[in-house]
Amino acid sequence: MAPEELRETLKHQPFEPFRIVLTDGKGYDIRHPDLLLVGKRTAVVGLMGNGHAPFFDRTVKVDLLHISRLTAPSKRKSNGKH
Fold first, then answer.
1. How many Å apart are CA 50 and CA 68, to the nearest integer?
2. Where residue 80 falls among pLDDT bands split at 50, 70, 90?
3. Which of 48, 64, 68, 70 has the most CB atoms in a 10 Å sphere around its CB?
4. What is the pLDDT of residues 36-79, one digit of tens each?
5. Mind listing the domains of the chain with CATH numbers?
6. Cα dist. 30→33, 36, 41, 43 in Å?
7. Distance CA 40, CA 73 (A)
8. What is the DSSP string of 16-81?
9. How far is residue 51's CA from residue 14's CA, in Å, rounded to a whole number?
10. Handedness of CA 29, 30, 35, 41 (dihedral sign)
């Protein structure tokens, strides 16, 4: 995925949560715009704990070439691999 496409989705107003789906089937929910940092070739996803505040507990680095699509977020409240 092009970084511009991911950034455009992230900056959409009003922000709409979305899910990043990777080529291996893993997915990461982006429930707040502060929880994704987009670079030229990679993105850093902030994974939330049980709270609803826009703070991450840990991060994961994702290669943009492995993002197959963006979808609606998971129904589960936690952020991370599903």
1. 27
2. low
3. 48
4. 999 999 999 999 877 667 789 999 999 999 999 999 998 765 44
5. 3-71 (2.30.30)
6. 7, 7, 18, 12
7. 24
8. --EEEEETTS-EEEE-SGGGEEE-SSEEEEEEP-SS-SS--SEEEEEEGGGEEEEEPPPSSSS-S-
9. 22
10. positive
